[in-house]
């Protein structure tokens, strides 16, 4: 039987970790996904994941673990797939089905593999974020850059939205001006700054918002430049978590406060009116956003609320209207209930709770609050595997840390229980 150290450095385990990162990153919809046939990508991801997991079962069975907790997660995934993905309740969604089938092959992986995969993902996000910041600075100073203009059919044909793709970064424009006007909102390689900001939030949450780590401070800083209300709400949760965990304002939180003051100083000095225009027009959208309720409700129009009110009396509250009925704004939580009903909400909650139930109460509260905020703010993102995989990653990383890892600054400094991690 291999030791934990041998498992961590085993080549098949490393391949499984890389494959896990590719699956998770691909599910986040980087722009390269727009350019690759979806059927081909899904086939390759499913094949690589199956090969990875089955190879581990054959040659390194210690790298697989299917305990009671993971069995419950698999049961909850099956319930989710039956309800949302098969024609038994709604309609068959083959892409959705394959993604969750891939998730089922990932669940049995040893927590060490997921932990290793997370270290790769975090480094990838830090690298891409630095690149995005460099392009943002160059664009701010109007330095000419080569780019490829791409119009995404789902959003650009009527609105005039277009992407300027620079390679390892892109910018979102409406016509010839940055989306929302004023300063650009950093997107990195993703289609929307809000999506990118939420991903950063969860990358930081998996690391428990350790703001004494340099890489996390980089991610936090660049997340602020997405000008995403969801990001600011999620960061507020993260900072509150650190304050409660440390029973006071620790060094990490002080670092964050210094960065916020520094950013405000720089963007006011150099950004001027552009900064204030972006803040007022994009963050608050000319509406009052005083609390979490306002943050969620500002994505629902009065028409949406009226249609939803009629739906409550329609007799379809239990199972909803399905995928084909989309007369109201589905980004708000009402859209999710309108399409999939109360049963859909309960099944989704069952999947979330089955994943995160084994962590300590404070961390459980943090993860559940963050996921619920995303679900309420951008309910359509709960259809994909992304946030379930991120929650699963958080639990696996937390489990490994409790057993083996002690952090110092931005590196793994001390190991215990015979696990030597480089």
Query: Radius of gyration from the CA trace?
Result: 22 Å
Largest sheet: 4 strands, antiparallel
Strand order of the largest sheet: 1-2-3-4
Count of strand segments? 6
Annotation field: number of helices = 18
Tell me the overall shape.
globular
- Class based on secondary structure composition and strand pairing: mainly alpha
Helix content: 55-70%
The fraction of residues assigned to DSSP E strands is: 5-15%
- Name the helix and strand elements from N-terminus to C-terminus, one letter apiece: HHHHHHHEHEEEHHHHHHHHHHEE
Low-confidence stretches: none
Describe the 3D structure.
- This protein is mainly alpha-helical and 422 residues long.
- 64% of the residues lie in helices and 6% in strands.
- Strands 1-2-3-4 form a four-stranded antiparallel beta sheet.
- The mean pLDDT is 85.
Name its key features.
422 residues, mainly alpha, 4-stranded antiparallel beta sheet, two-stranded antiparallel ribbon, O-antigen ligase domain-containing protein, transmembrane, transmembrane helix
Summarize the structure.
This protein has 422 residues and is mainly alpha-helical. The chain is built from 18 helices and six strands.
List strands and helices in order, with pairings:
Layout: H1 4-9, H2 11-27, H3 32-35, H4 38-59, H5 68-85, H6 94-106, H7 111-140, E1 148-150, H8 153-159, E2 161-165, E3 170-174, E4 177-178, H9 193-206, H10 214-224, H11 229-246, H12 251-271, H13 273-283, H14 292-297, H15 302-312, H16 333-356, H17 361-377, H18 386-404, E5 405-408, E6 411-415
Antiparallel strand pairs: 1-2, 2-3, 3-4, 5-6
Helix pairs in contact: 2-4, 2-7, 4-6, 5-6, 5-16, 7-10, 7-18, 9-10, 9-11, 9-18, 10-12, 11-17, 16-17, 16-18
């Amino acid at each position: 039987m291999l030791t934990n150290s041998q498992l961590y450095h085993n080549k098949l385990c490393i391949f499984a970790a890389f494959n896990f990162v590719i699956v998770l990153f691909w599910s986040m919809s980087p722009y390269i996904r727009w350019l690759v046939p979806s059927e081909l990508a899904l086939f390759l991801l499913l094949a690589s994941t199956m090969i990875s997991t089955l190879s581990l079962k054959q040659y390194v069975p210690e790298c697989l673990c299917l305990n009671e907790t993971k069995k419950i997660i698999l049961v909850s995934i099956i319930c989710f797939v039956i309800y949302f993905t098969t024609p038994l309740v709604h309609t068959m969604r083959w892409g959705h089905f394959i993604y969750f089938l891939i998730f089922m092959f990932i669940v049995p992986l040893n927590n060490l593999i997921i932990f290793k995969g997370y270290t790769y993902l975090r480094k990838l996000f830090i690298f891409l974020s630095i690149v995005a910041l460099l392009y943002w600075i160059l664009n701010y100073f109007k330095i000419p850059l080569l780019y490829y203009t791409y119009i995404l059919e789902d959003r650009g044909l009527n609105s005039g939205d277009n992407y300027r793709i620079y390679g390892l970064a892109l910018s979102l424009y409406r016509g010839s001006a940055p989306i929302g006007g004023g300063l650009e909102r950093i997107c990195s390689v993703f289609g929307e700054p809000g999506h990118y900001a939420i991903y950063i939030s969860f990358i930081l949450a998996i690391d428990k918002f350790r703001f004494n780590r340099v890489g996390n401070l980089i991610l936090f800083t660049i997340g602020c430049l997405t000008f995403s209300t969801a990001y600011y709400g999620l960061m507020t949760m993260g900072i509150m978590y650190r304050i409660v965990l440390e029973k006071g304002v620790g060094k990490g939180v002080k670092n964050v406060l210094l960065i916020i003051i520094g950013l405000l100083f720089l963007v006011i000095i150099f950004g001027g009116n552009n900064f204030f225009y972006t803040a007022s027009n994009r963050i608050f959208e000319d509406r009052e956003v005083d609390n979490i309720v306002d943050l969620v409700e500002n994505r629902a129009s009065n028409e949406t609320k009226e249609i939803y009110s009629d739906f409550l009396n329609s007799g379809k509250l239990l199972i909803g209207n399905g995928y084909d009925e989309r007369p109201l704004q589905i980004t708000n939580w009402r859209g999710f209930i309108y399409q999939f009903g109360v049963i859909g909400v309960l099944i989704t909650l069952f999947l979330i709770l089955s994943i995160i139930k084994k962590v300590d109460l404070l961390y459980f509260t943090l993860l559940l609050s963050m996921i619920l905020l995303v679900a309420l703010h951008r309910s359509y993102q709960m259809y994909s595997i992304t946030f379930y995989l991120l929650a699963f990653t958080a639990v696996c990383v937390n489990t490994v840390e409790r057993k083996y890892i002690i952090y110092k600054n931005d590196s793994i400094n001390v190991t215990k229980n015979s696990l030597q991690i480089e």
